[in-house]
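Structure ticket #2291
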Amino acid sequence: SEAHDSLVIAGSGDGSVKLYDLSLPPTNNPIRSFKEHTREVHSVDYNTVRKDSFLSASWDDTVKLWTVDRNASVR
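Resolution: structure written out below.
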């Protein structure tokens, strides 16, 4: 994350995007799991301007905008 050194996002083959906090023990991770894509997520990237948001892209032909504090995509 551009805003938090310990936050990491990961795209998964099941269509989910997971948010991990590396400062926490492994048993407390992931701290959030987002599931709106219907196929594999092939790309995730933090927004370098608005540092609390990120994008995910999937083989379901969608791109989603997320913020770390919401449980659903913004767009």
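Closing remark: The chain has a mean pLDDT of 91.
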